[in-house]
């Protein structure tokens, strides 16, 4: 049969199909057992599909068994990349493929934190339902709830609270409620207070 790993112009057929968004061709190549995790210029076909926003190809690669948890030399992962760019369909397929939901950037920020900071409500719901850790603390001491609160994203705050995020947890000197209040997001502060959130002097610190 044809060599599915043959290189033309430095690009293999799977890389070309992923880049162009040809899901059917990608499926044929996957069925032919081509290397799903080959590298070119430091990236894999999965990352190329994400970079080009080819969600159908992401689905094919995830279902075929591509490595969804590979950490690239720059610390990037498929989930972090997709979350940062708001690619909800891609995040769904990555979750279905068993991606590590709590992988983090060098600064400790996870996909849930990224989505919370940006106010991506549907993605936050997806990650919560997939059982992402709600109370991870990044290196600056902030949680997903803190990030959503300080940005004034009430619906995201509501979703995180319904998923039972710790409303008082923080690794810095300011609680999510206080951060919302001092950022003039009164609606968020009022919502958290109604749930029993504590003020700045009563913050539950993550560090003894």
UniProtKB/TrEMBL annotation:
SMART domains in UniProt: ANK
Q: Which PROSITE patterns match?
A: ANK_REP_REGION, ANK_REPEAT
Keyword list (alphabetical) reads: ANK repeat, Repeat
Per-repeat ranges for ANK: 41-69, 74-106, 107-139, 140-172
Keyword Secreted recorded: no
Return the SUPFAM superfamilies for the record: Ankyrin repeat (SSF48403)
Chain segments annotated as transmembrane: none
**Superkingdom classification of source:** Eukaryota
Its recorded name reads ANK_REP_REGION domain-containing protein
Q: Which organism is it from?
A: Noctiluca scintillans (Sea sparkle)
